[in-house]
Design a protein that fits this description.
Blueprint lengths: L9 E6 L6 H13 L2 E7 L10 H11 L6 E6 L3 H8 L3 E6 L4 H15 L4 E6 L9 H9 L10 H11 L6
Parallel strand pairs: 1-2, 1-4, 2-3, 4-5
């Protein structure tokens, strides 16, 4: 059972967010219509080194959601459902795109339900103009000097431009 006060609903939106995109932000904003608080949580992968470090991603998310007072960023290690329990969250938010997300997300949702039956998984379908956007696509466009600014929040664009130097277009 969640320790949330009556009427206070917290959801966790987990992911790698390497980097956070405008599509991710849309999901956060829509989740805030359903929940009182949304925690955008960066998971640590034991074997993957990200484009940005976990702490950089948490900071970029914080800067990107600063206009959303009921959203915050955090990082977690281990099982996401354990993090949800620690945070008093009653739900996990997952964004869906049409390119094969459902099967993987369904499997993960069922496993989470088996491990923590009191935590619901809520799927939000991305807007059509965000359905093709992914963090890896953003990194690829940026790496090849393409214009990626419209796909990411301003703090992410600035951080990527700083990392890339003058290689990427604006």
């Amino acid at each position: 059972m969640s320790d949330e006060p009556l009427g206070q609903r917290t959801a966790v939106y987990p992911g790698s967010f390497d980097p956070i995109t405008r599509g991710h932000l849309e999901i956060v904003e829509r989740a805030l219509r359903l929940f009182d608080q949304v925690i955008v949580a960066v998971g640590r992968h034991p074997t993957k080194k990200g484009y940005f470090s976990v702490s950089e991603r948490v900071d970029l998310i914080s800067a990107s959601i600063a206009h959303l007072p009921r959203a915050r960023s955090a990082n977690f290690d281990g099982l996401m459902v354990n993090f949800c329990v620690e945070q008093g969250a009653s739900a996990i938010i997952r964004g869906l795109r049409p390119m094969g997300d459902f099967e993987t997300e369904y499997q993960m949702g069922m496993a989470n339900r088996d491990i923590a039956p009191t935590i619901e998984t809520v799927f939000l379908i991305a807007r059509p103009d965000h359905q093709f956007i992914s963090s890896s696509l953003i990194r690829e466009i940026a790496h090849h000097g393409g214009d990626f600014q419209r796909y990411v929040p301003e703090p992410v664009f600035e951080a990527m431009m700083s990392r890339l130097g003058s290689k990427a277009g604006s």
